[in-house]
Amino acid sequence: MRCNAPHFCYIGMKQKSTAIQYVVYLLSKRDYGEAELRQKLKQKDFLEEEIEQAIVKAQEHQWQSDERFCRQFIHYRSQQGYGPNRLKQELRFKGIADWLISQEMENSEVDWFELAERVFEKKRSTNWDIKAKQKMWRYMVSHGFYSDHFSHLMDLDYDDYQ
């Protein structure tokens, strides 16, 4: 095999992509927050200067936006049955600023009380004794709901509805 550009013709070796190419590749799969993108670029051993340039270019072209990422994340995870407390924790872990999380949580159209009720009814045991209530309480809190979202449901006597 003959090659006109010898520095690209190493057998078994791949040409290293640029930071911006890698960012575009990642963002073509799904949205990422800025902090997540930085972390992924660092794992690929890109220089800080390359990382900064790639992030700035992605944001200038509106390929990456923490606001859009946060909005989509809230919508997606709430549809999976997770409450606001859990989503706030996950977004903080992903490097999203607290002010942005608060802003997007306020602007979201999710009715947390209705969502909590749907999750509660889906998971509620047919045997509604004290153990079942304790288990349900732990489940709802672990899924990020505040007690005021579901505490009124704990007191209902479900035996009357059967």
TrEMBL record:
<keyword id="KW-0963">Cytoplasm</keyword>
<feature type="coiled-coil region">
    <location>
        <begin position="37"/>
        <end position="64"/>
    </location>
</feature>
<dbReference type="InterPro" id="IPR053924">
    <property type="entry name" value="RecX_HTH_2nd"/>
</dbReference>
<dbReference type="Pfam" id="PF21982">
    <property type="entry name" value="RecX_HTH1"/>
</dbReference>
<dbReference type="InterPro" id="IPR036388">
    <property type="entry name" value="WH-like_DNA-bd_sf"/>
</dbReference>
<comment type="function">
    <text>Modulates RecA activity.</text>
</comment>
<comment type="similarity">
    <text>Belongs to the RecX family.</text>
</comment>
<feature type="domain" description="RecX first three-helical">
    <location>
        <begin position="19"/>
        <end position="56"/>
    </location>
</feature>
<dbReference type="InterPro" id="IPR053926">
    <property type="entry name" value="RecX_HTH_1st"/>
</dbReference>
<dbReference type="InterPro" id="IPR003783">
    <property type="entry name" value="Regulatory_RecX"/>
</dbReference>
<protein>
    <recommendedName>
        <fullName>Regulatory protein RecX</fullName>
    </recommendedName>
</protein>
<feature type="domain" description="RecX second three-helical">
    <location>
        <begin position="65"/>
        <end position="103"/>
    </location>
</feature>
<keyword id="KW-0175">Coiled coil</keyword>
<dbReference type="Pfam" id="PF02631">
    <property type="entry name" value="RecX_HTH2"/>
</dbReference>
